[in-house]
Design a protein that fits this description.
mainly alpha, 2 domains
Length: 280
């Protein structure tokens, strides 16, 4: 997904006041009570991250159902993207964090839901050690934690979570090479380690390969999968094509995504610039 890993995110920067944050939660309370998982996913892929995070509130439970894990992971991702929007373009992360009135509540919610999601995933794995879905989600919760602390906040923490995530994803893919979400997450690791980390650090992190990342995503989008799982793979493919300045390929993918998510302003902005430039 666009700017979905480490240093990536080019959403508008904003610092809402605590009053605005409280009002937003209140305004979305009705949505949170009646939303389905599909509603929340649609909001997320349309770029409406605050609404998506609020919509997942009523979808979490204390059970170990798969929908519970999906809701927790979606909520942590939506909270992460809100924090990235507020902080990613700021050089002094600590100063920006202090000036961001909404960030303490976002951070607290992110940390709480990450821990709860990890607890649910680990509970399922204790009951069924070969549960690939729980193993994937454990890895994804770990990666969201890593992306926030190492990427957005620039804090050198999260190495244990990084290695657990990498091992978890590799284990899932060893047993199920066609697990689309695991392929996407693993491709992001390959790409970022190869392109954003110094060689020595990249080697210590197990190495990466951006060509393999693009090849993996190209294969992932061809695998028949759930609508939103497919969307995640398409967004990741689009993002990496943009990063690599493969603009013709990126435009093709963006057009496909825009048909499904016409309210996504980032897609619209990209196509307004690059699709027009491609016209004769």
């Amino acid at each position: 997904m666009r700017r979905s890993f480490l240093l990536a995110c080019c959403l508008a920067i904003g610092a809402a006041s605590s009053h605005v944050w409280g009002q937003a939660v209140e305004d979305h309370s009705a949505l949170a009570n009646r939303a389905t998982l599909s509603d929340a996913q649609s909001l997320f892929y349309s770029g409406q991250y605050r609404a998506a995070a609020d919509a997942t509130l009523g979808l979490r439970s204390g059970s170990v159902e798969s929908g519970n894990l999906t809701a927790y992971e979606l909520r942590t991702s939506a909270l992460l993207f809100q924090l990235k929007a507020a902080l990613d373009s700021q050089r002094d992360k600590d100063k920006a964090l202090k000036l961001c009135a909404a960030c303490p509540q976002l951070m607290a919610a992110f940390q709480d839901d990450t821990k709860l999601g990890q607890t649910v995933a680990r509970s399922r794995l204790r009951e069924t050690p070969g549960d690939d879905e729980a193993l994937f989600f454990l890895g994804k919760f770990d990666l969201n934690y890593v992306w926030l602390h190492l990427g957005t906040l620039g804090r050198r923490t999260g190495w244990d979570e990084y290695w657990e995530a990498r091992r978890s994803l590799d284990a899932v893919l060893k047993r199920n090479p066609g697990h689309v979400r695991a392929l996407v997450a693993r491709a992001w690791i390959d790409y970022i380690v190869d392109t954003k980390m110094p060689w020595g650090t990249g080697w210590l992190l197990g190495g990466g390969n951006k060509k393999r990342a693009l090849r993996t995503l190209g294969e992932a989008v061809k695998i028949k999968s759930d609508f939103f799982v497919h969307a995640e793979a398409e967004f990741a493919l689009w993002d990496i094509h943009v990063r690599e300045r493969n603009l013709a390929e990126a435009t093709v993918v963006a057009k496909r995504l825009a048909r499904d998510f016409p309210e996504n302003l980032e897609l619209a902005k990209f196509l307004e610039t690059h699709d027009r430039a491609a016209q004769p």
